[in-house]
Specification:
This protein is α/β, with parallel strands linked by helices. It has 10 helices and 7 strands. The longest helix is centred in the middle third of the chain and has 16 residues. The model has no long low-confidence stretch (mean pLDDT 95).
Length: 265
Amino acid sequence: MLNNEQAERALKDAVSLGYRHIDTAQAYMNEEGVGKGIRTCGAAREELFITTKVAAEAKTFFTVTQSIDESLAKLSVDYIDLLIIHSPQPWVEFRGEKRYFEENKEVWKALEAAYKAGKVKAIGLSNFLQDDIENILTSCEIKPMVNQILAHVGNTPWELIDFCQKNDILVEAYSPIAHGADLNHAEIKAIADKYGVSVAQLCLRYDIQLGLVVLPKTANPDHMRNNAELDFVISDADMEILKNIEPIQNYGEHSFFPVFGGKLS
């Protein structure tokens, strides 16, 4: 939800505060801004870890291969550190009846080809359920290295996380603060107050203690700074409380995102 100019500014601010992992996607339409930020942020390219995602609608070997070259050009980089499939289905069909198993095998072949060619350093998935992942595992030469999923207090997909971790697939958590829905949750806030931290910090620490990589989205340098100050540990007892928080049923204004239960048309 950041345009090119905002993405460039956010990247430069983040790098100045010590961040090195930057996550974008073809669908965000800000790869050019990220590329400008990479070139002007003051950090060497090899110090940065750049992730982008193949558009959910690209489901053929050719379109994916073409889109990877376009991403490299827009980012103005010689390689992408991590390239992932944004969704097993096009967004308008997200979690619909058609599963795109065969198409995703073709997409994965294109990612493997890019990996072998040195265009990308790692390849993975996003929003893939267990059977989506198993479909890839049946025919892949290179195993998926990452699955980036929605995972936060109030929505932690335990079985999927366990499956990924048992298969040596690193789980990355996007929207680890529930796109803001956790910020006004009284029970979560009470635990955050107990540790003298913000709700955002508590939510990030929760995912980290589950062994997940957290990907908080912000363009606000103060929030960036706050999100990085996580030198506390949530007790086992409080982790159990957080694990059993009643699942969030409604993400309010953000529910239009497919991953939040909404639909795109």
